[in-house]
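hiii, so i know i said id send this last week but things got crazy w the move. better late than never?? heres the sequnce for the chain we talked about at the cafe, plus the structure i predicted for it. fair warning i was half asleep when i ran it
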Amino acid sequence: MEQPKSAAGDPYDKSFIQPSMEKFEDFDQVFEKEESLSTSLVSNGRVDFHGKVADKKKTGGWKASPFIIVNEVAERLAFFAVAVNMVAYLVFEMRQSLPRAATHVTDWIGAAYVLTLVGAFLADAYLGRFKTIIIFSCVYAVGMVLLTLSASIDSLRPPPCTTRPCNKATDGQTAFLYGALGLIALGTGGIKPCVSSFGADQFDEADSREVQTKYAFFNWFFFAINIGALLGITVLVYIQDNKGWTWGFGIPTMAMICSIAILAAGVPYYRYQKPMGSPFTRFIQVAVASARNHFNGVEVVREADLYEVKTNQSDILGARKLPHSTQYRFLDKAAVVTDPEGSPKSRWMLCTVTQVEEFKCFIRVLPVWTSTIALSISFSQLSTFFVSQANKTNRHLGPNFEIPAGSVPVFAAINALILVPIYEKWMVPTIRRRTGHPRGLTSLQRIGVGLFVSIFALGSAALVEKKRRDHLNPLSKMSVFWLLPQFFLIGTAEVFTYVGQLEFFYDEATDGTRSISSAMFLSEIGIGSWLSTALVKIIDSATGGEEQGWLRHDLNMGKLDYFYWILTAINGVNFLVYLWVARRYNGRHGPSTSVRDGDEN
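okay and structure toks below
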């Protein structure tokens, strides 16, 4: 007799059919398997590439993160290979003046980081983080290809200079180069705000084990950034100086193209966050609705008067509901139900509690964002005046090798590569035992440590510069290793502040604003770069210009140490302002995110 068959599609059918009997699974075993299946699914709404709720056993975590990190290494390698030596390329190949070339590079770096706001908007509103990274990586690669062509095709550069005055670049040659740099800046703007958030998306916040792994990811992500910077500053700068610009730009171009293929290879392992519409539109809706109700005399009497949808999820696609908070109560007026019998109105007239709270979260982090911009002014000195100092020192290692001046910032990158593993493996467990906090320090405490260290970084730079200028000897220059303290300290400040900002802005963001939140702190780098340029121009005009002022073309005749002391004072005042802001900060998870409390909710 033919044995009966189980129903098609039964997920628990093992087809254990024996010739003489059937072996059925016990009900308890089935229940355990169903429970195991449910607990292996993520709780934050992330989906796999089929569009189904992601399974922790098959997606995310360290199964997916390496593909993302490789893309970041390649992007940073290419960016630093271009940024560190672009001034030299503009001066020696395109025949621009040094001040003009330096200004163009500073403005380009600033634009690249401010454009992260555009990339973040597109990711959160329309494309999602993965598609944004892929698309803008391709834009980046096209820019690198055009830059390589500019360096390798003679008609795209001025002819060799045989007689003075040298021929400058034509408008067409300059436009081609600036077009390439523009695409690289645009690519950076699309990749940078999404890649760290996309990496963090691979970890479920409701799983205690994955939460700890997520913060380890932020540390190793920063480690990867410095690996890319290290290779760009050292190996590729050396190749550019000794093998030519074509090789110097061509190698990172190939690395960028390969990284796109590697990122695409991880598609089956990623967890994806669906785009949720424009957060800025929702912010404006809250502002308009609250203002309209305020002028109409509406008051918030009870929390029960505030409108929220009745579904389990919020009406923001893919976003979880947010609980009501008592901060910024004026904005609650946007969610007051003025007509209980009527149907829900347009979001320009009535917003949900979740939509209001999303806007509150955005406003809440603005003081922290503002009070950390000053540090980016100090960071911008790594590629400008710190390198200018190095040019005036003895950089020889033995009789046959001289460290390129553009490679001296490698000291800061090496410090970061050493400090990140030490912090993650030894310092965090030690501090955790003292504070009781899972990460040792809260995000705001970590940022504060970085701001504090930056004061000593610029003070050290001022003291060393004063010593160098007071002991000028043409036959025996000061060793470049006297600059180690300032590079070490600025690198330490970056390790603490940068990773702390990654953690803070991701944690305080809502489901619909993760990329925008990441872009906010990245835009600090661009704004800091522009502020540094403005500060230099102000000091230059106030102290006598390039011929008589503090910041002369010849550093030996200037007063660069005075400029460093001004930055030291700015960092000191900024640290005090930051302490005031951070001590009063009350995050969306409660006061545990402040500098006051080491316990997490």
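btw The two ends are 63 Å apart (CA to CA). thought thatd interest u
miss u guys!!
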